[in-house]
Amino acid sequence: SKEMQDVLQAFREEEFITRHDWSDKASGGYTTRKTYEHAKWAAQTDCALRTRGIYDFALFSDVDEVAV
Q1: Sequence-distant contacts of 57-63: CB under 8 A, at least 24 apart
Q2: Which of 16, 58, 63, 67 is deepest in the core (most CB within 10 A)?
């Protein structure tokens, strides 16, 4: 939704979150040649490797999930 995009954009501008493009084009077709589960695990592994040794915590979440 427009509201969600606005919130995510505000977080990106504050450098609170980083967006990585996992579209079909950016992934070289990987995300459409493989199942959803393959693509999800690839994205999560990429995030874990990018943040390893830099942050104490990393959150793996969908925008419709709530962290408590």
Answers
A1: 63/4, 63/8
A2: 58
